[in-house]
């Protein structure tokens, strides 16, 4: 986690006791657009391929986690809290979940995610399948970072 994200986290909590489970990351291939959808409360869900967690030896998200969302410049823009995590084959993702990702219709969600996962899996010398197991997360927006004042 970079220093700006740490400072934002500490500033948000101040002297209050705060959770220990925290990560900082940016969304997929359009981090600024997706972060803005979170800020506008249009994006309340996200997903990734389980195999990518396994390849990177990353723990799966839990409902105890907070995350700092970064923009493409790795600047913190918001804090979210994971409220639900489930494993779902991609071809069984419900329309309601896809819409909660905030990227358009179910068909648009599917097109975007098939393209993204094909590219990500190709880099790992793996093939995409329609039943690719996804880690589906729902989250709530906790805070939006105020823009820095220009002096």
From TrEMBL:
<feature type="domain" description="ASCH">
    <location>
        <begin position="25"/>
        <end position="143"/>
    </location>
</feature>
<dbReference type="InterPro" id="IPR009326">
    <property type="entry name" value="DUF984"/>
</dbReference>
<dbReference type="Pfam" id="PF04266">
    <property type="entry name" value="ASCH"/>
</dbReference>
<dbReference type="InterPro" id="IPR007374">
    <property type="entry name" value="ASCH_domain"/>
</dbReference>
<dbReference type="InterPro" id="IPR015947">
    <property type="entry name" value="PUA-like_sf"/>
</dbReference>
<protein>
    <submittedName>
        <fullName>ASCH domain-containing protein</fullName>
    </submittedName>
</protein>
């Amino acid at each position: 986690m970079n220093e700006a994200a740490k400072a934002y986290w500490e500033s948000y909590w101040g002297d209050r006791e705060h959770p220990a489970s925290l990560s900082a990351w940016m969304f997929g291939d359009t981090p600024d657009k997706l972060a803005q959808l979170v800020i506008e409360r249009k994006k309340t869900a996200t997903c990734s391929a389980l195999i990518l967690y396994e390849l990177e030896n990353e723990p799966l998200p839990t409902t105890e986690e907070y995350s700092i969302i970064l923009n493409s410049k790795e600047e913190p823009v918001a804090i979210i809290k994971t409220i639900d995590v489930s494993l779902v084959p991609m071809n069984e993702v419900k329309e309601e979940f896809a819409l909660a990702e905030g990227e358009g219709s179910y068909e648009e969600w599917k097109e975007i995610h098939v393209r993204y996962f094909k590219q990500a899996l190709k880099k790992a010398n793996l093939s995409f399948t329609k039943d690719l197991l996804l880690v589906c997360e729902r989250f709530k927006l906790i805070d939006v970072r105020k823009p820095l004042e220009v002096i």
